Amino acid sequence: MTGEELDRAIEFLLQGQANLEAKIAETNRMVQLHAETQSEFIQIVTNSIERLVAVQARTERSMAESSARTDQRIAELHAHTDQRIAELNQKIGDINTRTDELIAESSARTDERIAETNKLIGETNARIAEANTRIAETSTRAAEASERAAEANTRAADTDARLDRLAALVERNISGGNGNS
Question: What is the rounded CA–CA span in Å between residue 140 and residue 161?
Fold first, then answer.
């Protein structure tokens, strides 16, 4: 190789080295920019995560407080409901007791009235039986009286017939005959 070729080769190598150094410098600048960008991104992500952690902590605290208030309110409502149910059960029990008492009183009064009615029915039946006995006795006496009246009528008819015969006999004796005609 000649000196000129060697110079050109050196210059080519130097030019290549300069280009390479420029590319390395550009790459380093790009890497530096990427590193800065990455660092900023990491800082932004870190800040965002910290804010999210803080928000999450506040949300969890708020949820815990809300849950505690809700649990407390549910417990209060449950206690109030239990108390109202107990009061209503007591009222229902009182009403049932009073109803049972009224039914028992009404039943006792009804039983008394039924007993009184049965007694009156028994007395009325006894009176009816006595009246029927008296009616039967009266009917018997009336039948006997009718029989006696019939006998009396028969005797009266016999007596009337005998009187008629006697009157006829007396009339014949008075008119002149001795009755032996």
Answer: 31
